[in-house]
């Protein structure tokens, strides 16, 4: 619960918990009070009769859920805004909202003034842990020039990595999600490099490529108002193209050796694995193959970890995992 004007109001996680217990009749069924919501991915829609409504994702620090917004008190909802809203649930339409109070379209400013609410609503990575993992990975780089390059790049970019999500829907949708995802992928790559079958892999290039494979997401996702939505450039070019552009500028700025530049550009370009999955080229080096699979593994594990079972432990269809997965009790 969050205290708003001396009243306890529920977050989306608490509303979903009540729905899972089949105790969701009527409006404002948690405790008779409207809920508090952080909106993202807000999209205008219209009914068959032409009535305008909005679809959006709402979130708190622990979960996120798609909702329909049927009415609003003053301004229509926008990504990044915080609002109070009456809520109801139906099996056909899911959660429907009627906004009653629009706090601020700039949630960065709002959360700086209401830190207690921010702690409940903002999903956030463990930045301290991610930065410590990153420092340990840098120490494992043997080539001094590549180690210096990575140190210089992340000294410049760490503030951006700290606040950027790794995605807006499927995995690591939280402040610092990009840093968390990048260091986790590199950590998996480093562990795999110790396997006998990967004795021919260049560990330095693989770790560097893993740390930098999603660098284009710094330009793809908005991180200035916690809207967790895509930028204009992100929609135009997506993160792989933007990543190649940004990395090549950094390689030129810090005089990275061409052999490292080409290898890492290839990892960035191919890390989605297949052309139909968004990569302009498929992995053609051992390092790129390993980074691709580590990337998929880490993202899918995060997606799985954030799902809740709703039907005898089975989740709804999840694109990241290719279907419904089991999140019930295990032996």
Please name the defining characteristics of this protein.
43% helix; two-stranded antiparallel ribbon; 331 residues; 16% strand; alpha+beta; 7 strands
Structural overview:
The protein is α+β, with helices and mostly antiparallel strands. Helices cover 43% and strands 16% of the residues. It has helices spanning 12-20, 107-113, 115-121, 127-139, 144-163, 177-192, 203-212, 217-220, 232-253, 258-270, 286-305; strands at residues 2-4, 7-9, 35-46, 52-59, 64-71, 82-90, 94-104. It has a 5-stranded mixed β-barrel. The protein starts with a strand and ends in a 26-residue tail after the last helix. The model has no long low-confidence stretch (mean pLDDT 91).
How much helicity do the residues have? Answer: 40-55%
Q: Name the structural class.
A: alpha+beta
Mean pLDDT comes to 91
Cα distance spanning the termini? 32 Å
User: Count the helices. How many?
Assistant: 11
Taking Cα atoms only, what radius of gyration do you get, to the nearest Å? 22 Å
State which percent range the strand residues make up. Answer: 15-25%
The largest sheet, given as strand count, sense and whether it forms a barrel, is:
5 strands, mixed, barrel
Helix/strand order: EEHEEEEEHHHHHHHHHH
- Say how many strands there are: 7
If strands are numbered along the chain, what order do they take across the biggest sheet?
A: 3-4-5-7-6
Low-confidence stretches: none
| Shape designation | elongated
């Amino acid at each position: 619960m969050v205290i708003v004007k001396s009243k306890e109001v529920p977050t989306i996680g608490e509303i979903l918990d009540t729905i899972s217990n089949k105790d969701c009749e009527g409006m404002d069924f948690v405790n008779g009070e409207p809920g508090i919501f952080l909106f993202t991915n807000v999209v205008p829609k219209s009914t068959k009769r032409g009535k305008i409504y909005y679809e959006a994702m709402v979130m708190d620090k622990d979960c996120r859920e798609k909702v329909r917004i049927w009415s609003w008190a003053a301004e229509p909802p926008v990504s990044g805004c915080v609002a109070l809203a009456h809520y109801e649930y139906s099996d056909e339409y899911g959660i429907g909202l009627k906004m009653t109070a629009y706090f601020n379209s700039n949630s960065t400013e709002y959360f700086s003034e209401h830190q207690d609410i921010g702690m409940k609503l903002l999903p956030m990575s463990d930045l301290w842990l991610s930065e410590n993992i990153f420092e340990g990975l840098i120490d494992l780089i043997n080539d001094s020039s590549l180690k210096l390059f990575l140190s210089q790049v992340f000294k410049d970019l760490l503030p951006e990595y700290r606040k950027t999500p790794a995605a807006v829907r499927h995995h690591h949708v939280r402040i610092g999600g990009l840093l968390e995802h990048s260091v986790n992928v590199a950590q998996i790559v480093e562990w795999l490099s110790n396997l006998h079958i990967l004795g021919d892999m260049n560990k330095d290039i693989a770790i560097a490529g893993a740390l930098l494979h999603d660098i284009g997401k710094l330009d793809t996702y908005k991180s200035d108002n916690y809207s967790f939505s895509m930028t204009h450039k992100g929609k135009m070019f997506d993160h792989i193209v933007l990543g190649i552009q940004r990395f090549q500028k950094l390689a030129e700025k810090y005089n990275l050796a061409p052999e490292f530049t080409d290898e890492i550009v290839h990892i960035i370009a191919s890390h989605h694995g297949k052309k139909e999955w968004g990569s302009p080229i498929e992995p053609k080096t051992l390092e790129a193959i390993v980074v691709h699979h580590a990337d998929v593994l880490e993202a899918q594990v995060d997606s799985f970890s954030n799902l809740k079972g709703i039907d005898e432990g089975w989740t709804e269809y999840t694109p990241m995992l290719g279907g419904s997965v089991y999140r019930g009790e295990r032996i």
